[in-house]
Amino acid sequence: MRIGEASRVSGVSARSLRHYEDEGLIVPGRFGNGFRDYCQSTIDRVLVIRALLESGLPVRLIRELLPRLTDGSGPGTDAVGAEFLREVQSFRDRLAARIAVLSDQRAALDSYLREARRTEL
């Protein structure tokens, strides 16, 4: 299928599909005229990429993870897998720290709003 249909089927913009290709995450086939040709397995991969991006993983880690997802070996099966898991854990820890800061900021704003409402009455 061409890029417009692949975009419609996957729910991912044509621009994102081109970006995934530029990043080496997908390799669509090509028609004789040079247009991209997306098969179902590429669409399935796009859906996995989208889910991983939505979970917050950076493209660099997704690029490393994708071959393991498709060959069935899974992360953690060798030294590279162990390093990958450390990177994912580090990413998760940084995310947790950001969430903690945001939670503190939200609590401060909630407190401010409660106080402001009391003074309005």
Automatic annotation (TrEMBL):
Q: Which SMART domains did the record assign?
A: HTH_MERR
Q: Which Pfam families match?
A: MerR_1
Q: What keywords were assigned to this record?
A: DNA-binding
Superkingdom of this entry's organism? Bacteria
Keyword DNA-binding listed = yes
A GO molecular function term, named singly, is: DNA binding
Per UniProt, residues of the HTH merR-type domain are 1-68
PANTHER family in the record = MERR FAMILY REGULATORY PROTEIN, REDOX-CYCLING DRUG-SENSING TRANSCRIPTIONAL ACTIVATOR SOXR
Q: What is the protein name for this chain?
A: DNA-binding transcriptional regulator, MerR family
What is the species of this protein? Streptomyces aidingensis
Source species taxonomy: Bacteria, Bacillati, Actinomycetota, Actinomycetes, Kitasatosporales
